[in-house]
Amino acid sequence: MGLREAGFQPFGAIDAKQPRQPLQKSVEIFVGKGFCDLEVASISQTLALANDILARDAFSWRFVSDAPGLVSGATGLMVRAEPAIDDHGFSDLMIVVGGRSAGKATWLRRVRAMQRKALPAVLLSDAATAYINSVKQPAGKVTTHWRDIPTLAETGYHPNLTARFSENSDGVITAAGAGATSELVIGLIAPILDSAQVAELGNRLLLHTIRKSDCEQPKDLSDNEGLFDLHVTQAIRLMEDTIADPMSMADLTAEVGLSTRHLERVFRKVFDDTPAKFYKRLRTKRARTMIEETLMPIVEVAVATGFGSCDTLSKAVKDEYGLTPSKMRSRKKISLLSYHSDTNSDPSGPAG
After folding, report:
1. What is the largest CA-CA distance in the chain?
2. Which among 16, 148, 242, 263 has the fewest CB atoms less than 10 Å away?
3. Which is it for the CA torsion 34, 38, 39, 43, positive or negative?
4. Can you tell me the mean pLDDT for 329-338?
């Protein structure tokens, strides 16, 4: 199992010479309003299936929150969460789920307390992004969902940021989350399973393969090679790699090795659109992310997405989404660095 090989050992590995200890390992799942339902379901379902395979309650889990009681997820799933009390009631493993409220990082003090106790903490997707924004010089490599990686690269200096599925930095595991959550959980609990049980767990979850933690995320449309014609995949990859400095259609088709008319015919068949319009939509989508999720000046967003001027960007965004960049930004409160600190913690980095 890849995460075991990569050094993720939140739970003790089994010893073939000793009888297996029937100790129950506890997992704390931190949720906030608007949490990612997929991540929560993936965690609990994977742990439940592991208990079923082991024929005992090897893992227990509970939900905690800074807003305890019934907490609703992004698509309607509801969980009953206990209060997260500072320096109290820690589990063997803490997992912070992504979602709308994860960026507020109300869980950051608790993560630091877990570090001080040498207990692992896992941050998924939005939570990982908030952590990367708060920790200027992490002890090791960090990652998050690929969707946030271009924005992080544009808004700050993150030399230790990768696009892998998960990374471990001084006991804090940052991860892509989303659909890769089940695989991560399998990796975390793998040390107390044998190989056959790991394989059975993957089979129960209908996972054709269990990807290693150091695998690169499928970041772009072009990574889904099985969905498109080879020439379409190559064209999309070129578009995604040149968003800040768009290629002309003549240069792009020459690089792909097709005539402009042939490439247009292929794109219309697959996307019901021309390559030029598809290219522009990719850039507009990237611009929307930067407008809504960062405080970058609009002119810098325009340059970073190849539009060159605020007027050109504004027209493209309004044509695609019905709002100008200024109205799009004003409708959403941006709180990238809304962290709570106290006199015993340093908000600029992890606790020692």
Report:
1. 70
2. 16
3. positive
4. 51
CB atoms within 10 A of CB 78: 11
DSSP conformational letter for 60: E
Q: Which of 124, 165, 114 is nearest to 35 (CA)?
A: 124
**pLDDT tens track for 235-282:** 988 998 899 999 999 999 999 888 888 889 888 888 888 999 999 999
Q: Would strands 78-83 and 69-72 be described as parallel, antiparallel, or unpaired?
A: antiparallel
Give the separation between CA 99 and CA 3, rounded to whole angstroms: 24
Nearest Cα to 27, choosing from 119, 94, 79, 116?
Answer: 94
* Spatial distance between the Cα atoms of 142 and 123, rounded to a whole number of angstroms: 10
Kindly tell me the number of DSSP H helices and DSSP E strands found in the chain: 14, 8
DSSP symbols for 78-146: EEEEEE--TTS---SEEEE--BGGGGG-TTHHHHHHHHHTT--EEEETHHHHHHHHH-SS-SS-B---G
User: Which value, to the nearest 10 degrees, does the dihedral of the CA atoms of residues 197, 181, 121, 335 take?
Assistant: -170
User: What pTM does this model have?
Assistant: 0.69
- Helix 195-204 to helix 37-54 angle (10° resolution) is 130
Mean pLDDT of all residues belonging to the chain: 84
Pairing verdict, β 166-169 and 93-96: unpaired
Query: Which tens digits make up the pLDDT trace of 272-299?
Result: 889 999 999 999 988 988 888 777 889 9
The HSE-up count of residue 144 (CA atoms within 13 Å, CB side) is: 26
